[in-house]
Structure formats: structure tokens, C-alpha cells
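Lab meeting, item 3. Inverse folding demo.
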């Protein structure tokens, strides 16, 4: 949308301010009137000792009505002020021609980095060192949420990081199984961030993640996408299919229908939607449920923005040695603030991505190896067929609730040799209403 001329914009805002002052004066006059009436009511009752009981009741009723009026007017003033502020924000958005122009303005927003930790002191030290090394400013306060009461972790946090990070300690140390403990810790930590500290968004990492040089630059851009497009509910720094042979473009980012986790950002409104039904265990699977996702997507990079150090974890290194350990983090700093990210907004992304997929040459697995510098589409007709293709290529073959890892509208995208591969169902719906 084209920007308003400066003069018109200034005039429009000035009119809004006059509008707000006018209504504020009206409400102040009405409030004073009710207060005077209330005072007169009380004085009457005190002075007229022989007033009939019904008259007193009428005065009391007037008293209550004035109180109700005052409360209603207070709420109306707050509502009007909110409406004007919201309209002002809308005008500001209208004055911004693209996502690119607004990203730079997000650098002054305070976005905490929540580090979830328990007892892995060596990887925690590496994780915090990398976060502090690449953090661009104190606008990204690092808050470590410690579970388990591990003395070694406490000692390192006090002796090595006491001046650079904040520490909160999970108070519920009763013994439960590991997955329940993690889900309980996440719920408590997120409640501290959103309900107690009142932040509007958060970047969540675990203590076994070493971040890339442009980790924060990526999330600054992601923050604006998250606020700009209601069809996005998380920003992730992780690509499940991010092995070097499948991920080559550091600037490329995609939408995905499967929550990736492993270094991600969410907003307070998502927390407000989820916290009442937070699961006893397996919190990440909960975020993938249709009732939570509500048709929304996450953003993920082609090349991951963190490296996972955590072979020793609750999942006992599931996929770690065979897959996750070999997924590198990005090393080339990408200035996402200088890239127009508008194409990631759903209506533009679906058009662009749909054209890419539907115009790709349809081939078999064997034919793909004989092509070069092409967009290639390979069709699968069932999850079993998808899993067979995934195993032949070497990408992740599992799925969650029928959605393959990294898939968007059933399309799994990755690089293969010099080609871009799209594994798709026979029919793909890129209708913007879907």
C-alpha cells in the first residue's frame, strides 16, 4: 500500500488527537456531574433525619446509579483511548509500504530469550556463550529458567554469568517422569515471561543450542512477520531437513505446517490461547495439534540458525547420531533487515510458492538424479510412498498427525544436487482461503 504524504498523515493524526481531547472533556464533565449528584445525595440523607424510608431508598439508588455511571464512563474513556491508539497504529502500518521498511523499527522492541535448562552444565555454558557473543543489544534480555536444582548449573550461572543473564528457578521439584517434568517446566517458565513479566513475545531455546551469527537478525525479521500476518503462529530457527546436502541457500525461508521447535519465537496471544489446556507431557506435540494450530503455519529457514549439542537428553539422542548431529548452523551472516520479507505473507507466499511447485517438471526418483538446475516435482500418493521416497533421498521420513516434517500444504521442499525438489501429493490446494 502506498504511503500517505507526510502533510496528510500529520493532519489526520492531529484530527484524531482533537477527537480524543473532545471526548475526554465530555466524559470529565459527565463524571464531575455524577460526583456532584452523589455528594448532594449523601448530604440530603444526613440533613433530613425525618425523611421517609422510601425517599432514602431512592437516594441510595441514585448513589448506586451514579457509581455505575462513573464506572461505565471510565471504561468508555479507556475504550476510546484504546481505539484511537489502535487507529494510530493502523495509520502507521498504512504508511509502511512493505514488511522490509518496518523491520528496522523492531530493533528497539524488548524480546527476551528464554533458556530452558536442567542439569547439562557443559552445553549450557556453550549455549549462553554463543547467545551473548551474537546478541546485538540488551533489548534481548537472556533469562535462564532452571529446573532440577542442579548445584553445578547453579554454580556456573552465579560464577560465570551473574552479570549477563537473569535466572529464574522452577520451584516444583517433586519427582515425575522426564516428559512430564519438561512440560511442567515449560508451562511455568512461559507463565513467568508472559503473565508475570508481561512481555509480548519470547524466543525460546534449550540449553543444548549453539546459535548462528545472524540468529538475532533472523528473529528480528521474524518478529515483524509474526505481528504482521495472523496466519503465522511461530518462527523457528530450525530445519529438520537441514543437512548440508539438502540446504544450500542461507537467505531462503519457508512456511511449514508442522511446528519445528528447537529455537523458536511465539507471541503472548498464542500463550493465552494455549495455557488453559497445557498438556501434562509432550508439550511440542501439543503445539502441532489442529486445535492449537488452527490452520496457521510456522516460518523456518532453509539453513538452520542453531546447532544442536544435545546427544544426552530426555529422548536419549533420538535421531541425534544419525541426523540432528550433522545438521550445521548457518555461518554466513544474512542481513534480513535489508530483505523485503513481504513475500512471506500468506497471500503472496501461496501465489509464489504455488507457481514454483505447479510449474516444476514432474519426474520420478530415478529421473531426478539426471537433471540439473531444475525445479522438480515428485508425487507421492500415501504417507507410505512419502516415507519410501524420503528414505531414498535421506531426508526425515516421519510425520506428525499426517504432516511430514517441514511440509507446507503437503509439499516437502529441499535441495538435491543442483535441483530444488518438491515432494507433493497429486493434488495441491493453494486457494488463499484454505
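The presenter then showed the designed sequence:
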Amino acid at each position: 500500500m502506498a504511503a500517505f504524504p507526510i502533510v496528510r498523515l500529520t493532519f489526520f493524526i492531529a484530527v484524531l488527537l482533537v477527537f480524543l481531547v473532545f471526548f475526554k472533556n465530555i466524559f470529565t464533565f459527565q463524571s464531575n456531574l455524577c460526583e456532584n449528584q452523589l455528594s448532594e445525595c449523601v448530604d440530603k440523607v444526613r440533613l433530613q433525619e425525618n425523611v421517609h424510608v422510601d425517599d432514602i431508598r431512592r437516594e441510595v439508588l441514585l448513589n448506586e446509579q451514579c457509581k455505575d455511571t462513573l464506572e461505565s464512563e471510565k471504561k468508555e474513556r479507556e475504550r476510546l483511548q484504546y481505539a484511537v491508539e489502535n487507529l494510530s497504529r493502523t495509520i502507521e502500518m498504512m504508511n509502511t509500504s512493505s514488511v522490509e521498511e518496518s523491520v528496522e523499527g523492531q530493533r528497539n522492541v524488548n524480546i527476551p530469550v528464554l533458556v530452558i535448562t536442567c542439569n547439562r552444565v557443559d552445553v549450557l555454558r556453550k549455549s549462553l556463550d554463543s547467545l551473548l557473543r551474537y546478541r546485538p543489544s540488551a533489548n534481548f534480555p537472556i533469562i535462564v529458567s532452571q529446573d532440577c536444582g542442579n548445584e553445578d548449573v547453579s554454580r556456573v550461572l552465579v560464577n560465570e554469568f551473574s552479570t549477563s543473564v537473569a535466572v529464574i528457578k522452577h520451584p516444583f521439584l517433586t519427582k515425575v517422569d522426564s516428559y512430564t517434568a519438561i512440560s511442567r517446566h515449560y508451562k511455568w517458565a512461559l507463565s513467568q515471561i508472559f503473565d508475570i513479566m508481561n512481555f509480548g513475545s519470547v524466543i525460546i531455546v534449550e540449553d543444548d543450542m549453539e546459535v548462528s551469527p545472524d540468529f538475532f537478525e533472523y528473529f528480528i525479521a521474524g518478529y515483524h512477520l509474526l505481528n504482521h500476518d495472523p496466519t503465522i503462529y511461530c518462527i523457528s530457527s530450525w530445519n529438520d531437513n537441514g543437512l548440508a546436502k539438502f540446504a544450500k541457500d542461507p537467505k531462503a525461508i519457508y512456511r511449514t505446517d508442522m511446528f519445528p521447535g528447537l529455537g523458536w519465537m511465539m507471541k503472548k496471544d498464542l500463550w493465552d490461547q494455549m495455557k488453559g489446556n497445557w498438556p501434562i507431557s509432550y508439550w511440542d506435540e501439543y503445539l502441532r495439534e489442529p486445535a492449537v494450530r488452527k490452520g496457521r503455519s510456522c516460518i523456518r529457514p532453509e539453513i538452520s540458525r542453531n546447532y544442536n549439542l544435545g546427544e544426552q537428553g530426555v529422548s536419549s539422542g533420538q535421531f541425534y547420531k544419525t541426523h540432528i548431529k550433522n545438521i550445521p548452523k548457518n555461518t554466513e551472516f544474512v542481513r534480513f533487515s535489508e530483505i523485503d520479507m513481504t513475500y512471506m505473507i500468506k497471500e503472496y507466499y501461496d501465489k509464489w510458492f504455488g507457481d514454483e511447485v505447479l510449474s516444476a517438471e514432474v519426474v520420478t526418483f530415478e529421473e531426478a538424479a539426471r537433471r540439473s538446475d531444475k525445479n522438480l516435482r515428485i508425487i507421492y500418493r500415501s504417507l507410505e510412498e512419502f516415507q519410501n521416497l524420503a528414505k531414498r533421498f535421506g531426508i526425515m521420513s516421519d510425520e506428525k498427525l499426517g504432516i511430514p516434517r517441514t511440509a507446507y500444504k503437503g509439499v516437502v521442499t529441499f535441495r538435491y544436487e543442483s535441483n530444488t525438489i518438491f515432494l507433493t501429493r497429486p493434488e495441491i490446494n493453494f486457494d488463499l482461503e484454505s
